[in-house]
Amino acid sequence: MIAQLILRIVGLMTAGLILVVGIVILVGALIPAYVPSNYRTILGVVMVVYGTYRILMIFIKQRSQRREME
Questions:
Q1: How far is it, in rounded angstroms, from Cα 24 to Cα 61?
Q2: pTM of the model
Q3: 53 pLDDT higher than 80
Q4: What phi, psi does 61 have (nearest 5°)?
């Protein structure tokens, strides 16, 4: 039970960091000016979508595990 909690916390932290880095890339604070803006936009959007997807999957999995226990 504790191992699942630790894995869930690590997964949420990782997904949250990916989401934050994606937002920072979209804002333009992380990538140098010589990188094309199209690349920055695509990379930022992909990272934001992936971070959001991972967070949602963790919550959906947690909800289904709770239902199975009841």
A1: 28
A2: 0.85
A3: yes
A4: -65, -40
